[in-house]
């Protein structure tokens, strides 16, 4: 049985229980490739992407903030709609909680990265699907960490050290999370929305160099390895080039008189 088959079975079970028993159910956090699997599962069952309902149960993808990369599939009971669910989550979360993690003494703090915080959580024995986005303010070596709500108190108590830095964690309402990723906005013209053309623009590479990254399986779109340089990017696609960085493709904003496309991306700093 493949991981996608296992996910399909899990979704079938959770949506069925939410619909029959009229209570909230949810998966763990899904990465971007697993979310792509989720949408393919819906498509295979004939569910349009515009219909947020599976097996009779309405669903929402939620990761604790509006642009979360890692998100859980949440199946809602009849008395909750998407708007009221999210409003409730931002103040009193049932599914995704938020932890503020800061050094005990910033004068002696390491320069902490996303990898450092994730490693500290994994060392506590926490499974990856229980951990959502980790947003880091490197200037102050602090972070906000999104975790499943039923695990939050334990993490707040047990996470006392990240790398060589002693830290303290406390629960905060997700709506009060003030840390956001830093992006650099880049724009330029390309002949098409092919992944190789956009990567060449973003990282200022010759097309042949971009092809070498693709051939080496170092390019990923929405968590999946790119097999063809001709793959067309869709707005919202998250592109990662191992060794260079990652960006979110925002799409075409204009077309030149000569038929070239003026595109926009947000590059993670």
What does the model show?
With 269 residues, this protein is of the alpha+beta class. The protein has a 6-stranded antiparallel beta sheet, covered by helices on one side. Strands 6-7-5-9-8 form a 5-stranded antiparallel beta sheet. Strands 1-4-3-2 form a 4-stranded antiparallel beta sheet. It contains 7 helices and 15 strands. It has 3 domains: 3-90, Ribosomal Protein S8, Chain: A, domain 1, CATH 3.30.1370; 96-176, RRM (RNA recognition motif) domain (Alpha-Beta Plaits), CATH 3.30.70; 183-268, Roll (Structural Genomics Hypothetical 15.5 Kd Protein In mrcA-pckA Intergenic Region, Chain A), CATH 3.10.290. The mean pLDDT is 95.
Say what the CATH topology of the largest domain is.
Answer: Ribosomal Protein S8, Chain: A, domain 1
Q: In percent terms, what proportion of residues is strand?
A: 25-35%
The radius of gyration over CA amounts to 20 Å
Q: What's the mean pLDDT score?
A: 95
Low-confidence segments, given as residue ranges, are: none
Q: Tell me, what's the shape?
A: globular
Q: Look at the structure and give the CATH class of the largest domain.
A: Alpha Beta
Helical residues, percent: 25-40%
Count of domains: 3
Give me the count of strands: 15
Strand order of the largest sheet: 10-15-14-13-11-12
CATH architecture annotation name of the largest domain: 2-Layer Sandwich
Summed up:
With 269 residues, the protein is of the alpha+beta class.
